[in-house]
Amino acid sequence: MAGMFTGCSDDDENGPNGGKPMVSYVRVTRPESSDSLLTKAGQGSMVAIIGQNLQGARQLWFNDQQAALNPTYITNTSIITRVPANIPGNITNKMKIIFSNGDSLIHDFVVDISEPLVSGMMSEYVNTGEVTTIVGDYFYEPLTVTFTGGVEGEIVSVEDDVIEVRVPEGAEPGPITVATNFGVTESDFWFRDNRNIIASFDGTTNGLWHGPDYIKSSDPAIPNINGKFIRVNRDLGAWAWFEMYVGPANSDVALETRNIPAAALANPGDYEIKFEILTLDPLTGAEVKMYMGPNMADERGTNYTWKPNVDTKGQWETVSIPFDDFYTANQKFAYNPEGYGVSFHFSGPLAVKANFAIDNMRVVPKTLD
């Protein structure tokens, strides 16, 4: 009994686990999910390390990346921290805690390093041999960018969230694929997206009220990216009414507006309107009225108003507008396989220098089918 009593007294004096640090488990920090135990976590995740005698923690490492420690979130039974977002150079799948007395504790823990996130391209139309910019996250070298057609682009520069790549010969319309050592991601968007074009400006212009005078096959200040384009260069006064592309449903605009798929009208939230724009002066303060429907002449006063705040500094960029907003503003016209009338015109309260070009207007799904 004396021996048993002495043992219990020593344990009480030294604390739980004989005073030695220990890690029991790692869990998420949300109170409602406190019973969710973790053996791995993604970069940047907040975690709670639960154990005993942890109050002396001074450093915490996941693989070879040090986590930030705040003394406020360190107690004898827990450490709350965020998994480092930086990519490790040496992957050990271990967590290491270093204490004030120099001792250390190692615990198995995997940092789930993210596969590439491909959000978009500055311009989805870029000529062969020119450099395009891909935006996203988790672009960890070494990496490759493969275009539809099976050809790889030359990597010009890489940051965690931006890749600059030279478009190779043989690149075809379709998704691009970014691959790193931690995963492979195919883009939802298409490079040189040729689906559901509703205004290419390359076809005939019979029956258009306005547009033929502004459709150009070339311009000394603007490079072509896909045939002809709308080119506007004029000063517009406040409330000036300027029509750049207007045609009724019985004109040749219907030859392309019929490309809107029925699925886009049934589920407009799944689609977006995209087009490329190049500005030589900031296009700010303008209001572009966009009508589409069966009766352009009588109904185009009801339209979607695009208020651009665009300054591409002489480079082509891709613009995206939620098709749901456009479709609702145009009073949800019924599907017609024969096409629709359109009216794209300026009218707004501010004067604007309209010096720009647009091309490749299309209605495309937000995600890959």
Quick structural summary:
With 369 residues, this protein is mostly beta strands.
Topology:
Blueprint: H1 2-14, E1 22-28, E2 37-38, E3 40-42, E4 46-52, E5 57-62, E6 65-67, E7 78-82, E8 94-99, E9 104-108, E10 110-112, E11 117-121, E12 131-137, E13 144-147, E14 151-152, E15 154-158, E16 162-166, E17 176-180, E18 183-186, E19 197-199, E20 215-216, E21 229-236, E22 242-247, H2 254-257, H3 262-266, E23 271-279, E24 283-284, E25 288-293, H4 296-299, E26 304-306, E27 309-310, E28 317-322, H5 323-329, E29 341-346, E30 352-365
How big is the Rg?
Answer: 29 Å
How many strands, what sense, and barrel or not for the largest sheet?
6 strands, antiparallel
N-to-C terminal Cα separation, in Å? 74 Å
Number of strands: 30
Q: What do we call the CATH topology of the largest domain?
A: Jelly Rolls
Helix/sheet category: mainly beta
Strand content: 35-45%
In CATH's first tier, which class of the largest domain applies?
Answer: Mainly Beta
Helical segment count: 5
CATH architecture of the largest domain: Sandwich
Whole-number mean pLDDT? 93
Give the low-confidence spans. Answer: 1-10
Protein name: Surface glycan-binding protein B xyloglucan binding domain-containing protein
Pfam family, one: SGBP_B_XBD
Organism: Pontibacter korlensis
InterPro entries: Ig-like_fold, Ig_E-set, SGBP_B_XBD
